[in-house]
Amino acid sequence: MFYLRLARGYRVSDLGRWLLTTLAAGLVAAFLLRSLGRAMSDPHGGADPLVRLLWCLPPLVAVAWFAAVAARSVPARRPARIAGLTAAGAGSGRIRALIAGEVALACTLGSVLTLLLFLVLRNDIAGPSLAPDLGMGVPLPAAAPVTLLALVPLTSGIAAACAVPHPAAMPGARVHDRTGFAAWRIALPVGLVVIGAALELIALRPGAAEDGRPIHLPAGLGSTSTAALGGWAASALGLALLTGPLLGWTGRLLALGRPTPLRLLAGRGLTAQARRLGPPLAVLTLVLAVVLTTIRYWIGTPDSADALPAVEACLVLGCAAAAVVARLAEVRTDRRAVTGALLRLGTSPRLLVGAVALRTLAVGTTLLLTGGATAALAAAGLR
Amino acid sequence: MPAAPPDNDVLWARGIVKSHDGTPALRGISIGVREGEVLAVTGPRGSGKSTLLGCLSAQLPVDEGEVWFNSAPVHTLGRTGRERLRRDRFGFVGSEPHLVPELTARENVALPLLLAGAGHKAAYTAAGEWLERLDVGDAARHRPDRLVQSQRQRIAVARALAPLPPVVFADDPTAPLHREAADQVLRILTSAARSHQLTLVLATHDPELVRFADRAVALVDGRLTAPAAPVPRGAAAPGTAGASAVTATRR
How is residue B96 annotated by DSSP? Predict the structure, then answer.
């Protein structure tokens, strides 16, 4: 009932978040139910059921990631709601639980809708092509779908609750972002990138053809060698972790020397926000690099494309992009006071827009570099 | 067309009416601010002080009435014109420092000068000098989040004074400060205004601080209650003592 009342006060961005969470959760539920249906149709499928369940993992993680980032943005974007709840006697723990409950509710709604569709389709409506996916003709044990479908709201809800920091769930509390990165936060990713690149070089050395390619990749990507896969994984992780520090350095570079107000505001702003913008942008870049490399491989190799990975890629990409949008909205709301102060000083909005454009250009260039490197390493490993 | 405002009034408003989403804030205020004077606007919370300062400083458009600055209408200006006026002619200190968090204290103070087109070196030198004058020279290289509130507020005052604008608006600038720091900040504000012939419009809820002003008007529920009552200049004369401390030349 409480959530219904809350929903009445929702604006487009909140409704969009709800709708997207519901839709994504519904799709993940569809993946889970499909693996269940397959397992029911073919109880002696060997290792396949596990692989099919593993296929559900990336979308599940993607939905949880989006839920976490979106939940993290709620206290900053809706301070009035937090203040109201606190005035009504809710502590920071309960506020976190309420935010998590909202996410879980949206996920449950999506899952239940998918389950209904699944049950309706099982009722002899679907054609024979879908029969093995739905486990038609086999009695459905009630516990199985319920267990599987509880997974989505549970993971998303827990992720959302963990994402909201305790101090942020109190009204008027400003979570001060520390700028700059600890030494290990730079050393670790640099080390990973170096090790990954070295492994990749070993895999690509002239005599590497005799090594064999023992690892079979999913999504019709053929097979690859251990060194190539390990090297790519290490360097991709390193590049993703390095995105935040790189953004900070890009900001410093922008404001280097004797900066004009435009460069000063753009550069310093980017350095200050690098810690917050880094993770969602890194995830989006990584996902984009993987998806684009896969598409390139599919185009180059006939009959390798697959429908299921394509749908999954769309879902993961959508969640990663939505997480970036949520984080941008959070940063923007957080900076409303600063923007107001700058405008009061007589800063022209054109200058502020220019600073944002310059910042976007710098971020785009940095991400193009990290994403390009990730994609190039992946493409090299696939060859 | 109305009659032109009096010549010696640098700011002049007649019958300004302003409401925030239907809640009336100002109900017909006429006020004149003479060049070089320190005018205090007193009144309790919610009496419309901030709105009046917002209207006079070209931040808020008025619903009705007129605002003139140096015999030029402000109420007819578009957004760009108001921005230019705020940037080139007005300084503003609010009750919160509202500094740009990612810039150092010196960059914060230099920012309005840079925005007005001053050279890099000139802007940073002036910023450093003003920070010294406000006793926050040590904080020049620190970002606001590493400073205490009184230091941040002084930086905000330095930011408003550094370009030496003809008119400085101070909207309850001492709200976040302790008594002692508040007195010092106000003394520096008023002495800087007097030594550079700046006009200072000071809104405050504290009737005691009126002693820093040449003249005071009281605001209650969006109306001026008392006519501009002159404060005897010799009563406290905080400016005369501190004026020599502030010796920057006007650009």
Answer: S
Residues of chain B with pLDDT under 70: 1-7, 226-251
pTM for this predicted structure: 0.83
**Chain A residues within 8 A of B120 when measuring between CB atoms:** 258
- Cβ contact, residue pair B101, A342, below 8 Å: no
The answer as to whether A176 is a domain residue is: no
Give ipTM to 2 decimals.
0.76
What is the tens place of the pLDDT at every residue in A57-93? Answer: 889 999 999 999 998 888 888 888 888 888 888 778 8
| pLDDT tens by residue, A305-321 | 677 888 889 999 999 99
Ramachandran quadrant class, B98 (left: phi over 0; alpha: psi -120 to 50; beta: rest): left
Rounded to 5°, the CA angle A208-A210-A212 comes to 95
Cβ–Cβ of A346/B115 closer than 8 Å? yes
Domains and CATH numbers, chain B: 9-245 (3.40.50.300)
Q: Spell out which residues of chain A touch residue B103, defining contact as CB-CB under 8 Å.
A: 264, 268
Which chain B positions have a beta carbon within 8 Å of A272's beta carbon?
Answer: 101-102
pLDDT of A353-362, one tens digit each?
Answer: 999 999 999 9
Number of domains in chain A: 2
Angle at A88 between CA A86 and CA A89, to 5 degrees: 65
Last residue of a domain, one of A169, A199, A216: A169
Residues A163, A189 within the same domain: no
Taking the C-alpha atoms of residue B172 and residue B71, their distance in angstroms, rounded to an integer, is 27
Residues of A with a Cβ under 8 Å from any B Cβ are 176, 179, 258, 260-261, 264-265, 268-269, 271-272, 337-338, 340-348, 351
Calculate how close chain A gets to B4, using CA atoms only, in Å.
27
Q: Which domain holds residue A208?
A: 183-382
pLDDT tops 60 at residue A175: no
Given an 8 Å threshold on Cβ–Cβ distance, is A343 in contact with B98?
no
In B, which residues are within 8 Å of A175 by CB distance?
none
- Identify which of B206, B247, B246, B170 has the alpha carbon closest to the alpha carbon of residue B44: B206
Q: Does some domain include residue A177?
A: no
Contact flag A346-B114 (C-beta cutoff 8 Å): no
Q: Give every CB contact of residue A32 below 8 A, 6+ residues apart in sequence.
A: A53, A56, A148, A149, A151, A152
Choose among B167, B178, B206: nearest CA to B10.
B167
Token code pair at residue B96: 């919160």
Please tell me the number of Cα atoms within 13 Å of A50 on its side-chain side: 2
Query: Which residue from B85, B101, B114 is facing A338, i.e. has the nearest CB?
Result: B101
CA distance A109 to B103: 46
Contacts with B142 from chain A: Cβ below 8 Å: none
* Contact criterion met (CB below 8 Å) for A248 and A359: no
pLDDT band (50, 70, 90) for residue A234: very high
